Amino acid sequence: MMRRNMLLLLLIFSLAANVFFVGSYIVAHRRAAAMHDRGKRVAAVVKTLHLSDGQQKIFLRLKKQTARVRNRYWRQARADRLELWRLLTSPHREQNREQMDRVIHKMAVAREKYHKEIRDIIGQFIDCLGNNQRQRFYKLSSENRKMLSALFSG
Length: 154
Known about the structure:
0% strand, single chain, mainly alpha
């Protein structure tokens, strides 16, 4: 009898733990999905900053521009990394040193250009905001950098 009660108690405990685990997973998954939903992120920023229709159009145009800049950069960076890897793993690695240095320099210049373009795009957005909106933008960016970063990068 004691053994049966112990098994029943373990079964109940196991069931409760599994329900808790599944419930926690579902809640975490929904929260993560909400942050990955671009529409929700955009809507949250529009609401928080009280963007006018014109400002929303500017924001969406700049967001698309950011995506084009990012995609162009990553395509080139991938090609450069593959070229560097090819040179690095070549049997003639020592003779390829100058070529590798050129590829590394090209990658560094491209990265700097990319960051400057993104800086200018975000600057254009900030410039279209009113003073109160800028303050809210700065506050939002300091409180939730991941969300803001995802807005312009994703």
